[in-house]
C-alpha cells in the first residue's frame, strides 16, 4: 500500500483563518486572504510568533473544507500519515494531537508524526503548503495553495487548490 504524508497546518487545519482572526482582535483590521498573496506568513502577520505561542491556537483551528471526508477516503486506499512540524512550538504538540483525535479519529496515534524538519520523511506522496518541505521529497508532491505560496512556481510539484483537487488526482 502506498504511503501518503499529509501536512496539518495549512492543509488540514485552516491556520490562516486563525491568524486573520487574531490579527483582527488585536488591531481591528480584518485582513483578506487575497491581500496576503505572495507574502510570507511572517510578513502578513507581524505578531505570528505571539499567536503560535498562544494556548489554544492549534487546538481551535478550523478545518479546511472537505478535508475530513476526502482524507478518510484516502485512508482506505493509502497508508496515511499526518506529518506536522510541531517541535518548534512545544505547546502545539499536545494541541495538534488532540485536534487530530477530534477531527480525524480514523487516524491512529501511530500515523501521527510530529517533527522539526520533514527531510527525514519517506513516503510515496507528500501533500504540503510549503516548498521547503516538498523540494527535498523524493516521491510525488502536491503543493496545497495558500496565500504565502500563490505566486511561487515550481514545475516539480502539482498544485492543488482544494481537497476536491486532491480527491480528483488520488482517488
Automatic annotation (TrEMBL):
Belongs to the 5'(3')-deoxyribonucleotidase family. It comes from the Bacteria. Gene3D superfamilies: Deoxyribonucleotidase, domain 2, HAD superfamily/HAD-like. It comes from Negadavirga shengliensis. This is 5'(3')-deoxyribonucleotidase.
Amino acid at each position: 500500500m502506498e504511503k501518503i504524508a499529509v501536512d496539518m497546518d495549512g492543509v488540514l487545519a485552516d491556520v490562516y483563518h486563525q491568524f486573520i482572526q487574531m490579527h483582527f482582535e488585536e488591531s481591528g483590521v480584518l485582513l483578506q486572504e487575497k491581500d496576503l498573496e505572495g507574502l510570507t506568513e511572517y510578513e502578513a502577520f507581524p505578531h505570528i510568533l505571539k499567536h503560535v505561542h498562544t494556548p489554544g491556537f492549534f487546538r481551535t483551528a478550523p478545518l479546511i473544507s472537505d478535508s475530513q471526508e476526502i482524507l478518510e477516503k484516502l485512508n482506505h486506499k493509502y497508508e496515511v500519515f499526518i506529518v506536522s512540524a510541531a517541535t518548534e512550538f512545544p505547546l502545539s504538540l499536545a494541541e495538534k494531537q488532540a485536534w487530530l483525535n477530534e477531527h480525524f479519529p480514523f487516524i491512529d496515534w501511530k500515523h501521527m508524526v510530529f517533527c522539526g524538519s520533514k527531510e527525514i520523511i519517506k513516503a510515496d506522496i507528500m501533500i504540503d503548503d510549503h516548498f521547503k518541505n516538498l523540494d527535498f521529497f523524493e516521491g510525488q508532491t502536491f503543493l496545497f495553495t495558500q496565500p504565502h505560496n500563490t505566486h511561487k512556481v515550481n514545475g516539480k510539484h502539482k498544485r492543488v487548490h482544494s481537497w476536491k483537487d486532491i480527491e480528483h488526482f488520488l482517488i
